[in-house]
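Severity: low
Component: inverse-folding endpoint
Summary: output formatting inconsistent between runs
Steps to reproduce: submit the following structure tokens with default settings.
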């Protein structure tokens, strides 16, 4: 037998022995033969997937939690738990099913009055926010004297609405413009204060950089102050949207011939509480929808602020 043939036989015998040896290994020995790097990679992937799944479940729970809380609140109300707690009768606090039936029976009138009150809300909201923004922008060019002017304007918030509404009725009559004026006055100060703070709270090094580049005051306003103040602008808009519904409803309490506030006060006098509560529910829904519209606009126009604040 030649030397080459003997070498091949030796290799075949060694290979056969290796195969038979591996087949006789127990399961633990097979697992031990897997490379450590592959095991560590699989463990790392599993650890990465676990936090992602946990975060997704947490977000789902956070989104569902307010709805569940609302349903629990309505269920307790419907089964008269609050009536027992506060010793109330059904005519004092109608149950949700009675309010829903009243909304269904008076849908046409409620829609017409909600449209009227919504016009007052939006008109006063836009006018007051615009006037407050113009005041804050003008005051930002003269920070010292402008701060004094904004402080005087913020004093308007101290005037009670119940005192402001009759004055506006005396100035603008009993039409829709008197309620728009009430809403404009109470929203103007909030926008002016919020936006002025955003326009003037600039870190000094940014201003010094633009001064070094010989930027004009208008360029500093457009390139630095206004973009920096956009979150404050939307904060003022959200505050104003919440307060505008109060101004419109309270303004209709005094002199008005239509609107949710007029209908609410009229039905309370007549002790028709399901319809009165229907006005409250529709006014709250109107305020929530308009507020969410402002929040949606904020997310679309300045998404970087949402990422920064992690809201």
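Observed output (run 2 of 3):
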């Amino acid at each position: 037998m030649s030397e080459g043939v003997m070498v091949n036989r030796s290799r075949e015998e060694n290979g056969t022995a290796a195969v038979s040896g591996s087949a006789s290994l127990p399961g633990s020995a097979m697992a031990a033969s897997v490379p450590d790097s592959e095991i560590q990679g699989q463990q790392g992937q599993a650890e990465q997937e676990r936090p992602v799944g946990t975060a997704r479940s947490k977000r789902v729970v956070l989104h569902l939690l307010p709805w569940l809380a609302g349903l629990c609140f309505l269920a307790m109300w419907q089964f008269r738990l609050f009536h027992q707690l506060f010793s109330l009768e059904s005519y004092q606090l109608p149950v949700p099913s009675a309010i829903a039936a009243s909304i269904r029976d008076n849908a046409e009138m409620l829609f017409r009055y909600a449209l009227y009150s919504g016009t007052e809300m939006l008109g006063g909201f836009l006018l007051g926010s615009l006037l407050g923004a113009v005041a804050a922008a003008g005051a930002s060019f003269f920070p010292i004297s402008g701060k004094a002017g904004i402080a005087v304007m913020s004093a308007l918030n101290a005037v009670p609405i119940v005192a402001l509404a009759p004055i506006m009725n005396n100035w603008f009559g009993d039409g829709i413009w008197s309620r728009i004026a009430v809403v404009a006055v109470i929203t103007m100060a909030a926008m002016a204060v919020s936006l002025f703070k955003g326009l003037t709270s600039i870190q000094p090094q940014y201003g010094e950089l633009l001064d070094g580049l010989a930027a004009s005051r208008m360029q500093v306003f457009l390139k630095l102050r206004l973009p920096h103040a956009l979150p404050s602008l939307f904060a003022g808009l959200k505050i104003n949207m919440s307060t505008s519904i109060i101004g419109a409803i309270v303004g209709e309490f005094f002199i008005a011939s239509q609107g949710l506030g007029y209908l609410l006060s009229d039905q309370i006098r007549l002790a028709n509480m399901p319809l009165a509560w229907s006005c409250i529910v529709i006014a709250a829904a109107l305020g929530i929808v308009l507020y969410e519209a402002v929040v949606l606009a904020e997310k679309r126009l300045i998404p970087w602020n949402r990422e920064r604040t992690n809201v």
